[in-house]
Amino acid sequence: MAVSTRWSTTSSLTCILGTLVLATFLVDRGVLKLPMPHPAHESYIHRWPKEAPFPSTPPDASMRNSLLQQYAVRVFEGQLHNVETVTVEASTGRLLLPDKWGDVHEALLLANGSYQLNPKPLAQLGPGRVLGSKLDADGNLVMCDVLKGLLRLNTSSGAVQQLASRISASSAEAAGAPIFYANSLDIAANGSIYFSSSSDILPARAAGGLYDTGFAWVLNNFRGLPAGCVLVYHPHTQQTHVVASGFYYADGVALSADASYLLVVETDALRVVKVWLEGDKVSGWCCCSSSSSSSSSSSSSSCMG
């Protein structure tokens, strides 16, 4: 009986493995379309393109950084819940801290250099989750919300305004499309707000009310499509346009000092991309760093546009 049971188990495992191998082969050939689970239920698993920019070697051990382990000090333990982004008010040292439940907290800098957390939140943003934030020239907190797009909080009154939830009809690309998974931002001197949209998969609400950005990232990675993009919102016209697209999870963004280019962290490709905003290379982008020396040495010839 034991031998029979062991044989039955081995046969079942072999059958399952064979089915997975066959399914992988058929998906890779484009013959079989496997549907994705919710919240990506309208998408299918795609074959990874041969030109996908993934490093062939792991990061160099010399690139590891232990400074945080040596010098960082934990604050507000047990008082805040999964704060993804921290904004420092330069004039006062005040910290602005949006948490996973939509509460925006503030912590005041004391004379002795420590921080005191205000027990009452500045604002409640409602459903969604903030991943990136930055103060504009008027002292308002501009935020990227995975569900609601681009938001602006008046840090004095607590009033919240939704700046952009869709790409404008005047955009040359993806006109009228909803903005999903807004992630990180930077603000130009003229007030224009550049921000990333990591994926077109909208994070779903999980048990307890949290919007699960991690699972949406897993689905986006598993699907195998470069669905991330970078957008710009112009406050004077209230228009939102696509700046660049085709990223494997567009993440952090940072403007150059002269606003001639934008650096974009492409997380799933383990690299930083330079997007040109001015000059003869405008509307193009290229890789300017990666996790391995073999990738970065050839990146100068990989410019797009």
What global shape is seen?
globular
Helical content, roughly? 10-25%
* Percentage of residues in strands: 25-35%
What order do the SSEs take from the amino end to the carboxyl end, as H and E?
A: HHEEEEEEEEEEEHEEEEEEH
Annotate the secondary structure layout.
Blueprint: H1 2-28, H2 67-71, E1 87-88, E2 95-98, E3 103-109, E4 115-117, E5 123-124, E6 130-135, E7 141-145, E8 149-153, E9 160-164, E10 182-187, E11 193-197, H3 213-223, E12 228-234, E13 239-247, E14 250-255, E15 261-266, E16 271-276, E17 285-290, H4 293-297
Antiparallel strand pairs: 1-2, 2-3, 3-4, 3-5, 6-7, 7-8, 8-9, 10-11, 11-12, 12-13, 14-15, 15-16, 16-17
Descriptive overview:
With 305 residues, this protein is an alpha+beta fold. Helices cover 16% and strands 30% of the residues. The chain contains four helices and 17 strands. It has helices at 2-28, 67-71, 213-223, 293-297, and strands at 87-88, 95-98, 103-109, 115-117, 123-124, 130-135, 141-145, 149-153, 160-164, 182-187, 193-197, 228-234, 239-247, 250-255, 261-266, 271-276, 285-290. The strands form four sheets. Strands 1, 2, 3, 4 and 5 form a five-stranded antiparallel sheet that branches. A four-stranded antiparallel sheet has the order 6-7-8-9, with no helix packed on it. The protein has a four-stranded antiparallel sheet with strand order 10-11-12-13, with no helix packed on it. Strand 15 and strand 16 form a beta hairpin. The radius of gyration is 22 Å and the shape is globular. Residues 291-305 have low confidence and may be disordered.
